[in-house]
């Protein structure tokens, strides 16, 4: 019932740990936008940059980036 998020200041190692611990089905893309020193783009950019080298299968990447959040909120697609 627990979910982790990807807000780890762009740390690939921390994200890899999160994927191993929670699994792709329980990891949500987090941006921490209200606290971003660039007022939104930096944390999103750095988290996406850290996710890419993990080499997640396409379905797992879809889950992390938006699928898990959509499922939790019972949104279509």
What does this structure look like?
This protein has three helices and two strands. The protein is globular. Helix content is 48%, strand content 5%. Strands 1-2 form a two-stranded parallel ribbon. The chain has one domain (4-72). The protein is mainly alpha-helical and 77 residues long.
Residue windows where pLDDT falls under 50 for at least 5 positions: none
First-last Cα distance: 21 Å
Strand content is 5-15%
SSE series: EHEHH
- The figure for the number of domains is 1
| Strand order, largest beta sheet | 1-2
Q: What structural class is derived from the secondary structure elements?
A: mainly alpha
Main sheet record: 2 strands, parallel
Quaternary status: single chain
Compute the CA-based radius of gyration.
12 Å
> Averaging pLDDT over every residue, what do you get?
89
Question: Summary?
Answer:
With 77 residues, this protein is mainly alpha-helical.
Attribute tags:
77 residues, mainly alpha, 48% helix
How does the SSE layout of this entry go?
Layout: E1 4-5, H1 12-22, E2 27-28, H2 41-51, H3 58-72
Parallel strand pairs: 1-2
């Amino acid at each position: 019932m627990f979910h982790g998020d990807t807000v780890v200041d762009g740390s690939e190692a921390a994200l890899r740990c999160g994927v191993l611990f929670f699994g792709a089905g329980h990891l949500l893309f987090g941006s921490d936008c209200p606290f971003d020193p660039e007022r939104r783009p930096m944390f999103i950019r750095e988290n996406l940059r850290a996710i890419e080298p993990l080499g997640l299968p396409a379905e797992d990447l879809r889950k992390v980036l938006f699928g898990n959040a959509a499922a939790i909120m019972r949104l279509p697609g």
